[in-house]
Amino acid sequence: MSDIKKYSYICTRNRKETEIMALNTNKNVKLYYSIREVAQQFGINESTLRYWETEFPDLKPKTVGQNVRQYTQKDIDQISVIYNLVKVRGFKLSAARKMMHQNRQGVDRSADVLSTLTAVRDELKELKHQLDQIV
User: Fold this and answer.
1) Residue 90 CB coordination number (10 Å)
2) Alpha helix (H) ranges present in 84-103?
3) 48 burial level (CB within 10 Å; 0-12, 13-18, 19+)
């Protein structure tokens, strides 16, 4: 099916065309995450996330009620890039902001490569542990 047909399709009934929306079968996907969930995911304080919102103008989570922040997956991806630049690679906030502004695609790619390498490293460590158990 094409990309458009993944989400909706046309049904002909009694010579009338009606659009029927496909159901979201993946119930494990959340649309919004709390600041606590995001902070725990990255192992940082909630205040760090709030400060990064002031330092990086593109990072603007949705706020509801009494300034309760709701982060989307796009926000979390952006936090991941900021985390990679600041916490992993050791950039200062101003340098990270400048890097994101000048070379956003390169920063995104390097963050993706780093996360892939980290996952491979963890998998190799697990395999080594299993091999050590056998021997």
Assistant:
1) 9
2) 93-102
3) middle
Question: How far is the C-alpha of 38 from the C-alpha of 3, rounded, in Å?
Answer: 30
Contact 42, 79 (CB under 8 A): yes
Which is it for the CA torsion 57, 60, 65, 67, positive or negative? negative
Q: Using CB atoms within 10 A of its CB, is residue 91 exposed (0-12), middle (13-18) or buried (19+)? A: middle
Q: Judge contact between 54 and 70, C-beta under 8 A.
A: no
**What is the pLDDT tens value at each position of the chain, 135 positions in all?**
443 334 444 444 445 544 444 555 555 677 899 999 999 999 999 999 999 999 998 889 988 888 889 999 889 988 988 998 899 889 999 998 888 877 766 666 776 777 788 888 889 999 998 888 987
- 3/39 Cα distance (integer angstroms): 33
Identity of the residue numbered 90: G
**CA 119, CA 71: separation in Å to the nearest integer?**
24
Q: Give the CA diameter of the chain.
A: 70
CB distance 82 to 96 below 8 Å:
yes
